[in-house]
Amino acid sequence: MELLLITIINVVALLLPSQLALMSASRLQLIMLRDGGCRYYILQIIEEDDGSECYVFRKWGRVGSEKIGGKKLEEMSKTDAIREFKRLFLEKTGNPWEAWEQKTNFQKQPGRFYPLDIDYGVREAPKRKDMSKMKSSLAPQVLELMMMLFNVETYRAAMMEFEINMAEMPLGKLSKENIQKGFEALTEIQNLLDDTGNQELALRESLIVAASNRFFTLIPSVHPHIIRDKDHLTMKAKMLEALQDIEIASKLVGFDGDNDESLDDKYKKLHCDITPLAHDSEDYKLVEKYLLNTHAPTHKDWSLELEEVYVLDRDGEGNKYSRYKNNLHNKMLLWHGSRLTNFIGILSQGLRIAPPEAPVTGYMFGKGLYFADLVSKSAQYCYVDRKNPTGLMLLSEVALGDMHELKKATPMDKPPRGKHSTKGLGKTVPLESEFVKWRDDVVVPCGKPVPASIRASELLYNEYIVYNTAQVKMQFLLKYSVASLHCCICNGIGELFRSLRPSQQKKIISTCKNHVSSWLYGFVDVAGAAAPRQQGRLHVGMKQDAVNGAAGRAQAENDGDNMASWTSRCRPTLSRQRMNIAEFDVAAVTVPVLDGAGDDHRSYQQG
């Protein structure tokens, strides 16, 4: 029977009549979060090459289980096959086939299947050419950047980090339509979470479950769950934004393995001139100064090292920006950080605002383009870590005009009349006397961080938001590496967090505790000699952003007496389900003693 199934799948690609080809196959999927299952139903019409016979093929079961399910093949006339296909489609989805075929008025029905876009391409392991050995006319620095951008493993790793079920939605088969519908499902959940008084609790819960079912049907996950809170909602919305850029990259350059284009050809598809800056040029020195000066005081456990700076000129962007450049005052060169996997989309299409169908949750000042004047704030959104320490960041010229200044989160569609942008006022700001002008009228806020004159703000650092993409001109792309990810105790905790399901992450954060018995630890003294390995308790004050792999701080306690805090490079052994750090080795030197976890920390007492 397996041989027959392989033959059937091959025949589908050879369907002759246009009508039959349009309705030849459908993969239906149903996520049932209440019973923890993910069911599928495959429905196909198959026609013989000579048109003599038609078959309706069905296969159903539970994803990941070969024991549950079945299949059926029925021979009938073409007319009867089409009629039976439509009947079964209506029965399983609650919608007529025409609604799906014409992409009109298809509504996901509770407890019914939902069709997925399918691809009959061969999924054999691709034989990829070694791009590094191909001849190129690109500058060596640009060629290295292209190899970094077009590394397919980077995109696979990102999808695995997002817990995408790669068997159900492999890289290269992302659907823009499914991502859009995923946003719509999240917006529906957001509205239900906000509507706490107008519906009965049981009805509201059932609608949240139905919308969660629909979301995970569209975006298959290895850990589907009911999305019941704003934190998980925001996390999934950010994931979809990243998937949008991965989908753009997939369609632009191809990740299917059958794309033998050179890096030069792929570079041309970006429609963005990328020119490396000489390290002794004035612009390079200015960018380097901006990076070195504007590291935020709460991010001192790690540092950034500049490797390359590229000048950007995306096709058409300068023309769109010229109107605002000429008519608005207050232009600044500001930072914007993003995941490495987002940059093919950014370079080819520019910075984009979240789509209308996306939920508004998670945006402090509404949907817009967000920028910072402190480099380390933007670097947090690049999600580099100890294993992948190299990232990319933008410096963009932003026409801010008159700014609507705020001290707390205020979601909005656009700033009030007469204002051209929004500024979230931080409690720490660059020193204004050290600002410089670039190209006569663009302010570069490259002063060292100092306390602001205002103290009542909810924001630690400034944020700048524009709501029109034409107010932005990308000027420089920075390639940098993160150095001194000092405390790998905290890095290890960050890696553990990323390996856990969101519900487990939230539980650990909320309890702020985890206990390990018999903790062994060792230090290296200032001279580099290994200190005696000791047994005792270790208190870790960890910044929230350590969840994303950034560094934290460690303060050791032994026999009740405070010891010096040590900046450490450790190799913790972590179990998946609990913070079972059995032993670590240290290879670093001392730092000043810490008084304890600050306001922006979470305390983890180990003992």
Automatic annotation (TrEMBL):
Cell compartment(s), UniProt: Nucleus
Annotated ranges, domain PARP alpha-helical: 135-254
Reaction catalyzed: L-glutamyl-[protein] + NAD(+) = 5-O-(ADP-D-ribosyl)-L-glutamyl-[protein] + nicotinamide; NAD(+) + (ADP-D-ribosyl)n-acceptor = nicotinamide + (ADP-D-ribosyl)n+1-acceptor + H(+); L-aspartyl-[protein] + NAD(+) = 4-O-(ADP-D-ribosyl)-L-aspartyl-[protein] + nicotinamide
PARP catalytic domain span: 261-489
Superkingdom of source: Eukaryota
Recorded GO CC terms: nucleolus
Keyword flag rRNA-binding: no
Record-level Gene Ontology MF annotations: DNA binding; NAD+ poly-ADP-ribosyltransferase activity; NAD+-protein mono-ADP-ribosyltransferase activity; nucleotidyltransferase activity; zinc ion binding
Keywords carried by this UniProt record: ADP-ribosylation, DNA-binding, Glycosyltransferase, Metal-binding, NAD, Nucleotidyltransferase, Nucleus, Repeat, Transferase, Zinc, Zinc-finger
Pfam families according to UniProt: PARP (PF00644), PARP_reg (PF02877), WGR (PF05406)
Domain WGR span(s) in chain numbering: 1-113
Gene Ontology BP annotations: double-strand break repair; protein poly-ADP-ribosylation
Family: Belongs to the ARTD/PARP family.
PANTHER family from the UniProt entry: DNA LIGASE, POLY [ADP-RIBOSE] POLYMERASE 1
Protein purpose: Involved in the base excision repair (BER) pathway, by catalyzing the poly(ADP-ribosyl)ation of a limited number of acceptor proteins involved in chromatin architecture and in DNA metabolism. This modification follows DNA damages and appears as an obligatory step in a detection/signaling pathway leading to the reparation of DNA strand breaks.
Protein name: Poly [ADP-ribose] polymerase
Species assigned in the record: Aegilops tauschii (Tausch's goatgrass)
